Amino acid sequence: MGATESGDVFDRRSSVFASGGMVATSSPLATQAGFRILADGGNAVDAALATAAVLGVVEPMMNGLGGDMWAMVWWEDDRRVHGLNASGRCPGGLSASRFAGRKTMPEAGWETVTVPGAAGGYTALHERFASRPLAELVAPAVAYARDGFPVGETIAATWAIGAGKLKQFGGLEYLVDGRAPAPGERFRHPALADTWELFGREGRDGIYTGPVARELVRASSAGGSGLTEADLAAQHAEWAEPISLEYRGRRIVEMPPNGQGIIALVALGILSFDDLGKLSPAERMHLEIEATRIGFGEAFPRVGDPRCVEVDVTSLLTESALSGLRDRIDPKTARPQPDIGRDLGDTTYLCVVDAAGNAVSLITSVSSAFGAGVVAGSTGVVMNNRGAEFSLDPKSPNLIAPGRRPRHSILPAMALRDGRPEIVFGCMGGMMQPQGHIQLMVNVLDAGMGLQEAIDAPRYRILDGLDVSVDDGLDPEVIADLERRGHQLPSSEKLPPGRRFKGSAQMIRFHRDHGSLEGGTDHRLDGVAIGL
């Protein structure tokens, strides 16, 4: 059922419609920064870079110059999707031998820091597609860091989740009198402003060489890590060919390994054999959950750095392979979830479309709340803990090794129709991300929901074994039906915040028959979508 046909349209938030461009993010301040760039004649990449920079300041527990970034860009001039992998590598001084006697990587601290990739990614985007000087694009972020910004409500709550880690590992400068800032309280960080300003002037060299790099290495060495200036200087983003699958007349486009977009594609491929519109809500959700479990089960033993392990994506997505996977699903009985690793997932997703039809799907992250809990000396940069995602199993394709990129959770995505973008979308939240992609596509393409309705609809989150966390708004009859099939649905109060969180999504849709754009952003964070 489409959004305008729904009987409860006046009882919920509606999609945003416009025709001259659109920005959707989890922060009103960031959305406005991108909107101003579009309104001033900038293109989608200009706006995305301005938006991402502001997000790196106003959502410091989720992303920033100490994290990674992945992006997809649809460029109307050449009519293709350009994928960008700006994930960082394991420092040369870290290997499995350092963690002998442990079964898993540590959760935080300098030993979990990988070389941050975001700065290289932003620079690569800017050099290839932007029309405005980088210094101009990061200026709003510099101003918010230097002069302060009011902290959003859900951002304050997430900030508080990471406060204990900051105290444990020394990132105290992101606390106010030993606590997280309250909603509406202004927070400023002049040192971070200086770093963003330097990045605006010098691009990647401002982060990977010179005084910032030396300070990062000094702090890393003091913290017992093996990060070197050579590791930083060698970091670079890579343009990558996306992977894709046909689903309901659209081509769903995801990023290849070391990303795990393959999870979403496998699950959607399995679901493509059934007419989900004819199933009851419980039957559909059971099938979605089981397909998603299979997607994780197929991806995790395979996905790692493609320079070190080969992942045969093509054969995994053939009709015969997907049909065989569909046959594993029992319509009446749930199967346990294989281990899907740690529950990390503080990430920021944004999407932008401009008047020319260019589109950006971009996601950036320091991994979990405040990453490693450490700040790179006097730079103000929060460092990621992406290295915690590495495996210590010698047989794993994701084994930690110098120069290797870990299996990565952050996923930008698009859905193409007739060879051009129809939906630009993503969902943050660690291992929730491929699950969010699946549910968003089913909500829009199978259930016929408008974007805001699809984003706000109750979601599930697969946990360990047979456990599934579901949003409180899910119909009790659906919950009872799922439990009869063997799914275990623990109450929200029994789960830590990270396991309750169902991600935060942004989406923009081209309605080419109407010449308009539709946007939506998630109520689960502070976001807004604005069009012109």
How much is the average pLDDT?
93
Summed up, the helix count is 18
Distance between the termini: 27 Å
Largest sheet: 7 strands, antiparallel
Strand content: 15-25%
Strand line-up across the major sheet? 1-17-16-13-12-9-8
Instruction: Categorize the overall geometry.
Output: globular
Can you walk me through this structure?
This protein has 2 domains: 38-238 and 357-389, no CATH class; 240-343 and 412-531, Glutamine Phosphoribosylpyrophosphate, subunit 1, domain 1 (4-Layer Sandwich), CATH 3.60.20.40. 34% of the residues lie in helices and 18% in strands. The chain has helices at 28-39, 44-58, 118-129, 134-147, 153-161, 163-169, 190-202, 205-208, 210-222, 229-234, 261-271, 281-299, 313-316, 319-326, 432-446, 451-456, 476-484, 497-500, and strands spanning 16-18, 21-25, 68-75, 80-86, 149-150, 186-187, 238-240, 243-247, 250-254, 346-354, 359-367, 413-417, 420-427, 460-462, 468-470, 505-511, 516-521, 528-531. The strands form 4 sheets. Strands 1-17-16-13-12-9-8 form a 7-stranded antiparallel β-sheet. Strands 7-4-3-11-10-2-18 form a 7-stranded antiparallel β-sheet, covered by helices on one side. Helix 1 runs antiparallel to helix 2 and helix 11 (261-271) packs across helix 14 (319-326). The longest helix has 19 residues, at 281-299. The radius of gyration is 22 Å and the shape is globular.
